[in-house]
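Pasting as-is:
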Amino acid sequence: TYTVTEIEDNGFFQTNNLRTVSIPASVTSIGNSAFENCGNLLEVDMGVNVISIGTSAFKECRKLQSILIPSGVTTIADNCFESCERLNEIIISANVTSIGNSAFQNVQTVDKLIFMGCGNNGNIGIATNTFQNCNPVHVEVLCPNGLKFDGSYQNVFGSEAKIHTPCGSAS
């Protein structure tokens, strides 16, 4: 019996017959470009023990509809979900403290972007182009102390975003 603990770099790169992926609890790492350009991927169950998601891991998975970043993940790498055009719901776990360059760039159909809480007292490194050409309709920040980063919410999330911070303030 072999236990899978990682999905290697380019592991499923351009595998167009993938529709759904359920990552087992034994997996802790998803490599760079692991699922990049899987054009028909609709759904990913990330797995509860994933702690590392590589650069461009799901880039150009144009049909992916929603994503829940597991609680073990602290960094969302550069270009991770770039050009996932139909990604309409993004839920970011409480332990994420850094979101890389272009991580969600060109994700044009986002209805909900939810921060489930914020580690590091709400300080989260969000690159200014992280959500470029994304313009989420609804941003919900569930952080006791609000979400803090350089720039304004509108510069990061776009001018049309409705920011809701039921537990804290917008900084």
